[in-house]
Structures are given as structure tokens and as C-alpha cells.
Amino acid sequence: MKRIVPMEKESALLIVDVQNDFCPGGALGVAGGDEIIPFINRYIELFRKDGRLIIASRDWHPSVSRHFREFGGIWPVHCVQDSNGAKFHSGLLLPPESLVFSKGMNPLLDDYSALQARNESEMSMSEFLKEAGIRCLYICGLATDYCVLQSALNGLRQGFAIVVLTDAVRGVDMEQGDSERALAEMIAAGVILTSIDKLLPSG
């Protein structure tokens, strides 16, 4: 089988929401969420060596948001701005040149897609990627059935090629099988699925 290798200079690695609150022990911990971090670090190393952009999104909610259950949403309070739960997991080895984009700041919006996130200049990730000439996103992180799914679908709608790194995602699975259904939905929409053994050169 032909290996999928990030040879195009127009590609970037997108790490979605690998934050303390989404890892085991956090306010909205994903089972096995921390187990993907070694894989993500290998992708980081690969993309960094190849001179590709490395982008990390994060939930960055105000303390009062309709995203949260107590204000009409479906989720417990999580990833509140400047809290420990909102920090990236300590095992995630983001290099200094990584670009960070924040989402969920508007208390009226859920902002599941990382492409809705903004940098410190208030530029959306989508706008940034287009200005940077990025054509393909390799996506990993949390959670498969929510923010990874919506980031992938949103990226396709905006004309990006999308590759999801299946060994570096985990799902919430509020209902059994949600993650599998999310992956199937991505495939049906045109997302490519791959893993580290297919991305790294042999030998």
C-alpha cells in the first residue's frame, strides 16, 4: 500500500484541544485521552523536522457560557480561561514556534471547529491558513466525535484536504459507537484516515 507522506509544503499539523480538562482526571476527561500524547509528539517531531507548521487549538471559555450545563448547555464547566484545566497537557511537547489559536470565547457559541479559533490578533485559523497558503491539514487530538469531527468537516467545506490521524484521536462517546460513527461520517465526506506507521518512511 502506498504510504501517505506529508511531502507537500502546503500542509500543517493541527492538534485539537489536548488540554487537562479533556484528559483523564479533568472536568470532561476523555477515556484514554492522555494515551494519544506520545503519538502526537511523534507527529510533532516529524512535522517539525520537515519544516511544517504546527498549530494547536484550545477551548478558552469564559466562566459563564451557554456551552455549560448550568447555563443551558450539555457540558460541565471546563477549560475556563487561565485555569489549570485549560492548560495544554504537560506531556504534550509543543515546540516554541507552535501557533496557538483559542475558541469558545463567545459565551453564546459552542465553537466545536478549531478553524473557528482565533489567534492573539483576532484572526481566525481559517483565515490564517488561507493566507499562509496551507492546503492540507493533518488533524489529531480531542475529541473524535466533537471537535475533531467538526474541524475536519469544516475544513473540507472550506476547501482544505483533510487527513485525520487515527492513532492520535480519542472520543467522548456519550453514546456507544459515537467515535466510530464520527470516523465513518468523515470518510463519507472525503476525509483521509491514516496513522503513524503509514506516515513515517519505512526503514
Write the CATH fold name: Rossmann fold
CATH architecture: 3-Layer(aba) Sandwich
Count helical runs: 5
Strand content: 15-25%
What is the radius of gyration? 16 Å
Distance between the termini: 15 Å
Bulk shape:
globular
Structural class computed from helices and strand pairing: alpha/beta
Number of domains: 1
Oligomer: single chain
Question: Uncertain runs with pLDDT below 50, 5 residues or more?
Answer: none
Q: How many runs of DSSP E, i.e. beta strands?
A: 6
Biggest sheet record: 6 strands, parallel
Short description:
By secondary structure, the protein is α/β, with parallel strands linked by helices.
Structural commentary:
The structure is a single chain. The protein has a single domain (11-199), classed as Isochorismatase-like (Rossmann fold, 3-Layer(aba) Sandwich), CATH 3.40.50.850. It contains five helices and six strands; from the N terminus they run βαββαβαβαβα. The chain has helices spanning 37-49, 125-131, 144-157, 178-189, 196-199; strands at 11-16, 53-59, 99-103, 136-142, 161-170, 192-194. It has a six-stranded parallel beta sheet with strand order 3-2-1-4-5-6, sandwiched between helices. Helix 3 (144-157) runs parallel beside helix 4 (178-189).
